[in-house]
What we know:
Elements (H helix, E strand, L loop, with lengths): L1 H9 L9 H31 L99 E2 L2 H7 L8 E5 L2 E7 L5 E7 L7 H12 L9 E7 L2 E7 L6 H6 L10 H20 L4 E3 L8 E3 L5 E3 L6 E3 L6 E2 L11 H6 L1 E2 L1 H17 L15 H10 L17 H14 L10 H9 L6 H30 L3 H22 L1
Parallel strand pairs: 1-5
Antiparallel strand pairs: 2-3, 3-4, 4-6, 5-6, 7-10, 8-9, 11-12
Helix pairs in contact: 6-8, 6-11, 8-10, 12-13
Amino acid sequence: MSAFLNDxxxxxxxxxxxHLWVVVGICVGxxxxxxxxxxxxxxxxxxxxxxxxxxNISTEIxxxxxxxxxxxxxxxxxxxxxxxxxxxxxxxxxxSGGYRRIQIEMGKEHMVKxxxxxxxGGSGHGSGEVxxxxxxxxxxxxxxxxxxxHWYTLRELEIATNFFAHExxxxxxxxxxxxxxxxxxxxxxxxxxxxxxxxxxxxxxxVEVEAIGRVRHKNLVRxxxxxxxxxxxxxxxxYVDNGNLEQWLHGDVGPYSPLTWEIRMNIILGTxxxxxxxxxxxxxxxxxxxxxxxxxLIDKQWNSKVSDFGLAKxxxxxxxxxxxxVMGTFGYVAPEYASTGMLNDRSDVYSFGILLMEIISGxxxxxxxxxxxxxxxxxxxxxxxxxxxSEGVLxxxxxxxxxxxxxxxxxxxxxxxxxxxxxxxxxxxxxxxxLEVDDFPFRDDRRTVRENERSHHDEMKETVMxxxxxxxxxxxxxxxxxxxxxxxxxxxEINDEE
Length: 498
């Protein structure tokens, strides 16, 4: 029997000429692997279903729970004013397991549709006020113990946004959805509902958000407060009511853009002032990391406000750079940061230079719909300038062209900001000076100065020789001087032609 079985198993099959026992072994092995795979799938599904959706809660942003048994007093004016140093534990309830960590990142994208623009007229609530809800089941939120802004209750923000209605969406990105909200005092706010989808260290979150929350500058979007109730994490900003720069540059605005040259320079100058405050007015300095046209919000007076600090990093004065994971938007990221991960304020300067080129030309930083030589904005603009076709880079939707002097100044600033050598890029404070100063040193101006100095020198020499002739009666020196000046004249003309 065993000999018969051995003979049968040793027979070759039609499957690549393999012996029967080999084919049987392969089938058994495949069956075992399949069973193990199915078991692993079942185990993974069971584990996921047993875990809560968000299992980590910050110890710094504590959860606010609403006590249904408490109601507001009948007289709204009798609401007590909070102490300067509030005690959050009176209004919060801790889980038995304690609070752990949660990542809260402020959004990366701010794409706004033309018919729903916004994120301006900020809420006037200071850090010492107490706000009351509209309905009896809502308690007044505590003042933030981080030292800035407010704790907003979930109920407040639900009422303000009409329960996060789709028609109130004004922005959407990888880190959350931004809603327009109307508070009880009829002030507008922008509410970002955060997607807590990758943990971030609690200490890093506290340092970065606290630094940004304390920032107060007319060219930076103000962070008013936050909501931390249950699993919900939201940030509340002032509302800017005229869309963003990307809409006005690349949206459907008709044959001519409302952005005149003066408006564009006002927008870019405001952006530069906001960045200068982040880089030079704070300690530690704040590196934005995501400067781009969609993150520059515009108000009704065409003033710009830098928004979206979700990728911001802090850089202390004792460090020249930090090494971090490369984040940002394609086309705006500095080359040295993209290749090495080494980040400092010069990375923002590069992005600002791209933004300046974008606002001058009306083109995207990278546009694959254009001819091969025009895909990259930096390369194309450098080619145009080197060919002495500066006016050819202007946005064709601009009704009135700027003066040649103003255009050359803006282009020179942009080219200096995108210098491949990061150390040669100017600081943002110097950028403001270059954009504002009237006597900007152009090549033509330097040539005119040299010619004026030379003419003045010649006149002085002629005056001296005239005096010599009068005193001595000898004109040989004067004649030799005239010959010398005449010999210099052709050379001067050659220099002028160059």
